[in-house]
Amino acid sequence: MRRDMLFVLLAGVMIAKLPAARAVELHVAVTGRDTNPGTTQAPLRTIQRAADLAQPGDTVTVHAGLYRERVNPRRGGASEARRIVYRAAQGEKAEIRGSEPVRGWRRVQGDVWSATVPNTLFGAFNPYSDLIRGDWFDPRGREHHTGAVYVNGKWLIEAASLEDLTAPPGKTPAWLQQGGDPYLVNVAWFRPSGATARVPATLMSAKGGTQNAPCEEGGDCVGFIGHGDWLRYDSVDCGPKATEIEIRAASASEGGIIELRRSTRDGELLGSRHVPNTGGWQSWASYRVKVKPLSGRTALCFVFKSAPRAALNAPLWFARVQGGSTTFWAQFPGADPNKQMVEVNVRRTVFYPDQPGRDFITVRGFTMRHAAANWAPPTAEQVGLIGTHWSRGWVIEDNIVSHSACSGIALGKHGDRFDNQSANSAEGYVETIRRGLAAGWAKGSIGGHVVRRNEVSFCEQAGIVGSLGAAFCTVEANTIHDIHMRRLFSGAEMAGIKFHGAIDTTIRGNHIYRTCLGLWLDWMAQGTRVTGNAFHHNGTDLFTEVDHGPYVVDNNLFLSPAAFMTCSRGGAFAHNLFAGALNIFPYDGRMTPYHKAHSTEVAGYHDNPRGDDRYYNNIFVQTPDLSQYDDAKLPVWMAGNVYLAGAKPSRHEANPTAPTGYDPILSVEGSGDAFSLRLRLDPSWLAARRTLVETSMLGKATVPGLPFERPDGSPLRLTADTLGRPRNSTNPAPGPFEALSLRSVPLKAMAP
Fold first, then answer.
1. What order do you get walking across the sheet with 407-410 strand by strand?
2. Which helix (H) or strand (E) holds 303?
3. Model pTM?
4. Does residue 659 have a cis bond before it (omega within 30 degrees)?
5. Are 385 and 372 in contact (CB under 8 A)?
6. How far apart are CA 636 and CA 608, in angstroms?
7. What is the pLDDT of residue 285?
8. Model confidence over 568-612: pLDDT tens digits?
């Protein structure tokens, strides 16, 4: 027996000393064959065949061409050093699409054409019978499918019915008119230029829709105003002559158009005015509407309409699955679809493993488009156009990701029998967290991904989404735009980046614009750092929801009308530029978790009172109002901030810099995808001495009792500005730029 044991031990030693299998490079080309060995001279045809063959340490090099397939990696790498790399060949464009072309279109009437395809095109999954659904999803009164139709790369809009496509010219379906936010504006009062007295908006003679709501400027206002709502005032004193009407309004949405009509909602149009997002439902501004001359007592009717949006300026499609085929109808204004590239979604995803735990995979340099990904709530398996599926150590870099029915890049949770069973409740998500911990949610097991230098666009839920699986990650230098811009459905999971449980995650140097909400840190942002990002043209730039910290927000540009919204505590805000309104909720009663340091292990649960935030060396312009912290239940610390053009300090700041009459001439210039920030800063602000922001001055977040430090536990010191230039360690400049001068700064993603 001893001799046998010795033989086994010696054999084990010999095997251990054998070299690891030599790494192989597998080549894929559109001219290849899947029976080939995958060499340069004899490449494979599909990326999936290479994925079937690839072993830890191997590289899959994909050469130029269009690949219509879903890549399902059969295995992951073995370690950081022996990962499996999927890459586009250097200098070549390799594109993977989840769509297939459709031909054989026949004209039905006018610009409406039809085509029928066999369901064998889709296999076991047909996106045109797959409804978008899940926890916290709101279909807004109609069905939506994960399918899509594209013409020359641009996607059309799914109609609610076939009749919508054949409606007479100029007749827009009601659901399309109402696309966007359900509520447009609040109105406090109005005043004709020929009169002296304001008319409270709540003194209407009749109305359609709307509800009264409290007004922070006093009394009540008219709120909950949706598309098509109206207010009638039978006897408005316009004085001897009124040529304009001043309206006091506020909006936290995209705003809307106020039409002034004579007597009735269908009466003569006297004038109209677009009211934009003012930064909040109680961020009031006055708007003057030029009208046809009015005098004496006049009956006026205010009619409210959604503003037209470019995202909804697209033709319609409709599909019906019957028997063994699927029929499409689509509008092709002035074009023959048989002479265009018409494609339809076929695959749920483009690059996604069908099982969890396929770790250490790199995906680099691809263009990936067209996925029928379903809704990705935090309580279900989160599938994106590309996704990591409950694994660790992925690197997703230098890709173009676009046109997902819901989410682009998914870093989120696994699926189980409890998916979408939370009843949309906090208690339901607490149970999800407990199940996640039981399924291995821990540092070194789940998360730890790197997502960098990607462009993510045209996704109707989120650009990057992750529940639990987004912990211990780095998300940097990505450009994210045109996310949830159609807004034909709604819910609680839409943003450029939407993370739950971003523990020790760094979100750095990203450029996020034209989204409903730039960055949403929802639950368990602990050890999270948001640094050096540029936000603009968003509904709201940053939302931190029921987090207990510690989390750090530094050196960012928040340039949208609504800059920051929070019902969290334990935040440290330093060297940011806030050019939009702040909305600091007084209290949220949900009991949400906090964790042990640098761990997913839950340490306890707490409610969410206002306070325990720190603001150091920021610049606030125009609408930000820090006085919302004046009655905070928890302590607040503020110093070294600059308040310009009407921004309001809190009583908690002893000596704020607030120069009277100073004009920072702040503007965001440009269009399309090229933007710059113009801003004038004053070197005289350095006369007020400031302290370098570091761990020792920030104290500890009250609820978890933990310091503001780096993910590795080392001290944090803000020694560089948003451009990477060194800060003056003895007297750093306020705001994101160390050099205080007239500046024009390109707004773009920036690598560290």
1. 386-387, 407-410, 462-467, 495-500, 517-522, 540-545, 562-566, 581-584
2. strand 297-305
3. 0.91
4. no
5. no
6. 14
7. 87
8. 999 999 999 999 999 999 999 999 999 999 999 999 999 999 999
Stretch among 189-203, 515-529, 535-549 having the lowest mean pLDDT: 189-203
Q: How far apart are CA 387 and CA 401, in angstroms?
A: 11
- Report which secondary-structure segment, H or E, holds 155: strand 154-155
Question: Which residues are CB-neighbours of 503 under 8 A, at least 6 positions away?
Answer: 471, 472, 524, 525, 526, 527, 528, 595, 598, 599, 600
Give the other-Cβ count within 10 Å of 599's Cβ: 15
> What is the average per-residue pLDDT within 225-238?
93
Q: What is the pLDDT of residues 285-342, one digit of tens each?
A: 899 999 999 999 999 999 999 877 777 888 999 999 999 999 999 999 999 999 999 9
Rounded Cα distance, 183 and 165, in Å: 27
CA 123 to CA 396: how far, in whole Å? 28
Q: Structure tokens of 553?
A: 């927000």
Q: CA–CA distance from 231 to each of 121, 221, 259 (Å)? A: 52, 12, 11
Helix, coil or strand: residue 617: coil
- What is the spatial distance between Cα 137 and Cα 130, in angstroms, rounded to a whole number? 15
Tokens of 462: 């989120």
CA dist 487 and 255 (Å) reads 14
Which among 204, 166, 162, 170 has a CA at the least distance from the CA of 187? 204
Give the pLDDT score at 743: 78
Q: What is the Cα–Cα distance from 550 to 573, expressed in whole angstroms?
A: 11
Q: Check: CB of residue 521 under 8 Å from CB of residue 502.
A: yes
- Helix, strand and coil content of the chain, in percent to the nearest 5, comes to 10, 40, 50
For 366, residues 6+ apart whose C-beta sits below 8 A from its C-beta are 62, 86, 88, 94, 95, 96, 351, 399, 400
Tell me: the pLDDT tens digits for 742-751?
A: 779 999 998 7
Enclosing H/E stretch for 697: helix 695-698
Handedness of CA 714, 478, 278, 234 (dihedral sign): negative
CA distance 503 to 224: 36
Number of H helices, E strands in the chain: 5, 62
Give pLDDT, residue 716: 98
Residues 523 and 500: beta-carbon distance below 8 Å: yes
Q: Which residue has the tokens 């770790």?
A: 359
Residue 182 per-residue DSSP state: S
Q: Helix, strand, or coil here: 329?
A: strand
